[in-house]
Amino acid sequence: MSVSSGRVPMRSVLRESLTETLEESAFHAHRGIRPPAQSVRPEHVGTAAARLAAVTRHELLTFDDPSGCIGQGVPERMLVHAATCVREVVARVPRVRQITSRRGLARDAEVGTIRWRDGGQARLIDEIPFRMGVMDRSVALVPIDLDVLYNGMLLVRDPVVVRALVRAHQRSWQSGEDPSARLFDEEPPAHLVPVLECLLAGLTDEAAAARIGLSGRTYCRRVGDLLALLGADSRFQAGALAVRKGWA
To answer: Exposed, middle or buried, 164 (CB in 10 Å: 0-12/13-18/19+)?
Structure first.
C-alpha cells in the first residue's frame, strides 16, 4: 500500500489481476473449455521465444525491463540474444510497442540495442508490472514468476488471457512517457562515456577498444549505439551533436 495516498500501486493491481486471470484460465482448461497454457522449462525459453518472434507478422506488444535481470543470475549473452531477437522483430513487424522503465531502456542500450531508435515505439513507466510479450494478439509469453522469463515461462493461447494482457498494455501505454524527446538529454549512459571520449580523441577502433578494455566488436557496437542515441549518421556528426548537447 502507498503510505502517502493509501492506494494500491498499479503494478500490484495488474499483477494480481493477471494471476487471477491465469488461475481462471487453468480452471477452464482443465475442463476442456479453453486451451491450456504450455509450460516452457528454463533451458528451452530462449529457443521458444525466438521461434515465436520469427513467426510474428503484424504486432508485438511487450512489458520488458532488462535491468530487472541484474542480480537474477541471467547471463549477459542471453540478454544480448534477446536484444537481437527484438531488433529483428522491430525491423520486420509493422507495429511494435514496448513498455519499459528509464533504467530498463538504458540497460537495453548497454546490451546492444536501443529499441526506440530502431523503428519500434516505446513508452516509459516507473516500473513494469510484469514481463510479457503478446504476438499478433494470438499468443502471449508470461514468466512463471512474472518477473524473469529465463526462470521458465508460460506460452498462453487462451484468448481471454491474451485480451486481458492487451488491455493492461494499452492502459500503461496511455499513461507512459514518450522517450524520444527527453531520454538521456542531460547526460549520456555511463557505459557510452568512454566510447564518446575515444571518438572525440580521434582514436582508431583498435586503439580505442584497447584503451577501454573492450573487444573490437563490442567497441564498434557501442559506437553504433552512441550514433543511434544521438540520431547521427556519422562519427563526425555524433561528436558535433555530443558537444552541442553539452556531453563533452
So the answer is: buried
Question: Hey, what long-range contacts does 218-226 have (CB within 8 A, 24 or more apart)?
Answer: 219/195, 221/112, 222/191, 222/192, 222/195, 223/195, 223/199, 225/109, 225/112, 225/113, 225/114, 225/192, 226/188, 226/192, 226/195, 226/196, 226/199
Look up residue 226 and give its three cell numbers. Answer: 552512441
**Residue 107 to residues 36, 78, 188: CA-CA distances in angstroms?**
34, 13, 12
- pLDDT tens per residue across span 175-221: 988 776 555 556 777 788 899 999 999 999 999 999 999 899 889 88
Residue with cell 500501486: 9
If one counts every other C-beta atom within 10 angstroms of the C-beta of residue 220, the result is: 15
pTM: 0.69
Cβ atoms of 141 and 49 within 8 Å: the answer is yes
- State the residue for C-alpha cell 526462470: 151
**Positions in the chain short of pLDDT 70:** 1-8, 67-76, 79-80, 105-120, 180-186
Beta strands in the chain (DSSP E): 38-40, 59-63, 95-100, 121-124, 132-135, 139-143, 153-156
